[in-house]
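Not sure how to ask, but would you mind making up any protein sequence you like and the tokens describing how it folds?
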Amino acid sequence: MYRSLMHTVLLISLLASACTPSESTDREEKPRPAVMVRPEVASTRLDVYPGEIRARFEPALAFRIDGKIHRRLVNVGDRVEQGQALAELDTDDLLLQLDSARANFNSAEADQRLAGSELERHRKLLARQLVSHSQFDAVTTRFEASEARLQQARAQLDVARNQAAYAVLKAPESGVIARRMAEAGQVVAAGQGIFTLAADGEREVRIDLPEQSINRFRVGQPLTVELWSQPGKPFPAQVRELSPAADPISRTFEARVAFDNQAVGAELGQSARVFVPQATATDVFQVPMSAVSADGGQAFVWVLDQEHQTLHKTAVALGPFGQEFVPVFAGLHADDWIVAAGTHLLREGQRVRPVDRMNRPINPDRTLVSQD
């Protein structure tokens, strides 16, 4: 009796569980929130490159001879005038060389006077036929050789004088000492840089361009410059010079951006920013780098099906990556909505709830409330 009752209760339980739908089939998957943005026209954004105000002409100043620096007469930041002495070499050896050259010149000059007197006497004797022509020719040759030695000694004396004068390094033009590369007591070679002079006159901005952006720049390209000390006051500028080779350490290309300093009033060493339009074509879009994924070497983004609120993988053709954005040449339209973050957690056909970056619900049929 008890056993039959237990079988009856078990059968009723099995029938009841078979008739009750499972909780997993009854509950539908809830749409997850997804940060959505629209592609932006690339020409509406600017790339910003930090730079420093530099002089257009920055000659490296060096001695023209070897020697030991005896005195350094200026410091970094000092203003110098054209012809002002900047440093001096030890002149002891130079003065000895000058004395030796002067002595050689005096000796050669005395020999030339003696050879000239002898030539004049032999010329008179030859007229009286007291000497032979061969003797006269020998005296003439000695006189010509003495003149050549005198010219050689004069040239050596001039060189020695120049060498002594080269012991003083002078400013070739007015400006500011921007850098010092040697100190008093140091032995330097001829041509070794001692100072860098920021010459008076034109000013420009020095910026460094990454390898992926160098093809977007050309000499004469119009840009915009803004000083950190004058925010909100852009000035027109243009690319004056592009380095043909990358820096071996930073792998960046140096560029010089010229502007009208009379209007800007920039000082050496000031910080500046150079603004560059990312693109000039109106059909080129850009999206955040976080929105782009890749599958099998093919870049794609997640585009929202606005009717069904589902996501679909869409292949895109990309340009060179920037610091925050990447241009898209094909695959998107201006009215598309794409997922801007968390793309690695998505799957094809997934239902989502569009939100902006402030986690506020958005209606894909309307303009996004805030993308920043």
